Amino acid sequence: MKIIFIRHGDPDYAKDSLTPKGWREAKALAAFLTAPGGMGWDIDHFYCSPLGRARDTAGPTLRALGAKADIYDFFREFNREAIDPRTGKKRIPWDYYPADWTKDERAFDGLRWETMPIFEESPEVAAYFHEIGGRLDELIQQYGYQRDGRFYRVRESNHQTICIFCHFGVASMLICHLLNLSPVAFLNGSFIPPTGITLLQTEERDPGIAYFRMNFMGSTPHLALAGEPLSGSGLFQECASDPFRRIGAIHSLREVCPENEPENKILLKP
């Protein structure tokens, strides 16, 4: 079984949609996913976050394939907050300063990260992490794989592929659940660019026992083929002396995404 996570295109957060660049990225993604031969993926089912920027990213691909996506609320961006040790204020539970989070060895432990003080003070983060992981397991079980501790029992081996249009935070949390990794180390040390493609695939070396292996993360061949530069939305500057900017961004301010265009409509199941 294969699971494909696709992050939304360059976002216009104010409108919960895409910037003009994001729309170009979504169209390039659709051309790549639907090209004859493509990556050799025959996608059996599409799923999508309920948020506009993910739905808009999925739209061109779904229209090109004449397909529909199931909307699952747990694919929305991870929205539980924790205390920032530097400011003392609540915020998203990643993008902490390295000098702060790396001091605690539990940050690198897939079993103990939730016992860090910042997460003990905000238990809703770990609770929601386990909740969405359980929801993903329920979905995967429909395809013949049942969670058993840290691996999956195979009820029905198959080569089915599902594709999930969502967000960096929630995709990373779900990857950590599948691979039994610490989301603290993972989210603070990785990046998925807008419309980046991440692929995980089961390996069944012992009959009846499967584990997911990540083949690649945040891949953007479609942008290279379309001559579209990467968006650095979600990244910080490379050097402290650099002005903050998004890598490859062609605009310095949020641009308004055109409204009420027919191409912006998306085929989605309620």
Strand order of the largest sheet: 5-4-10-1-11-12-9-8
What is the residue-averaged pLDDT? 90
Strand content: 15-25%
The CATH topology is: Rossmann fold
**Total DSSP E strands:** 12
Element order: H for helix, E for strand: EEEHEHEEEHHHEEEHHEEH
Low-confidence stretches: 246-270
Q: Give the biggest sheet.
A: 8 strands, mixed
CATH architecture: 3-Layer(aba) Sandwich
Distance between the termini: 26 Å
Written account of the structure:
With 270 residues, the chain is of the alpha/beta class. It has a single domain, classed as Phosphoglycerate mutase-like (Rossmann fold, 3-Layer(aba) Sandwich), CATH 3.40.50. It is 29% helix and 21% strand. It has 8 helices and 12 strands. It has helices at residues 20-34, 52-65, 98-101, 117-120, 124-141, 168-179, 183-188, 221-226, and strands at 2-7, 11-12, 17-18, 45-48, 69-71, 82-83, 90-91, 145-148, 151-154, 161-166, 197-206, 209-219. The strands form 3 sheets. It has an 8-stranded mixed beta sheet with strand order 5-4-10-1-11-12-9-8. A two-stranded antiparallel ribbon has the order 2-3. Strand 8 (145-148) and strand 9 (151-154) form a beta hairpin. The longest helix is centred in the middle third of the chain and has 18 residues, at 124-141. It is globular, with a radius of gyration of 19 Å. It starts with a strand and ends in a 44-residue tail after the last helix. 38% of the residues are buried. The model is unreliable at 246-270 (pLDDT under 50).
